[in-house]
């Protein structure tokens, strides 16, 4: 997922009931200042062990949902199933629906 004027650019991995924002992802400066985040996001935002001074992740960060992960990255409430994209630019929602259709 990426933001306007490269405010953020993140890479993630959806594994069942969790979503991992990968090392090297750029976190929005708005997100780093946000007080509207959950416990996990606050822990990651407040720790120099996860985000360097330039706003890049130096460790993977795990969340309970794609939307929580997306909010952590961009700094505002957003539907993670729509904003996270595959390499071929399909939303996570579309990817999962396609995958379910292939398995069903």
Q: What proportion strand?
A: 5-15%
For the largest beta-sheet, the strand count, sense and barrel status come to: 3 strands, antiparallel
Number of distinct beta strands: 3
Spell out the helices and strands N to C: EEHHEHHH
**Overall pLDDT confidence:** 88
Overall, the morphology is: globular
Rounded to the nearest angstrom, the distance between the terminal CA atoms is 28 Å
> Which range best describes the helical content: under 10%, 10-25%, 25-40%, 40-55%, 55-70% or over 70%?
25-40%
In terms of topology, how is this protein built?
Layout: E1 12-15, E2 18-21, H1 29-33, H2 39-45, E3 61-63, H3 66-74, H4 80-83, H5 92-103
Report on the structure:
With 104 residues, the protein is an alpha+beta fold. Helices cover 36% and strands 11% of the residues. Strands 1-2-3 form a three-stranded antiparallel β-sheet. The model has no long low-confidence stretch (mean pLDDT 88).
């Amino acid at each position: 997922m990426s933001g306007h004027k490269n405010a953020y650019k993140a890479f993630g991995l959806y594994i069942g009931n969790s979503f991992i924002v990968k090392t090297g992802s750029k976190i929005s400066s708005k997100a780093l200042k946000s007080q509207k985040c959950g416990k996990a996001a606050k822990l990651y935002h407040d720790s120099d062990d996860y985000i360097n001074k330039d706003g890049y992740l130096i460790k993977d960060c795990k969340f309970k949902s794609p939307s929580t992960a997306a909010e952590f990255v961009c700094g505002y409430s957003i539907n993670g199933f729509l904003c996270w994209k595959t390499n071929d630019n399909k939303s996570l929602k579309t990817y999962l629906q396609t995958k379910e259709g292939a398995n069903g």
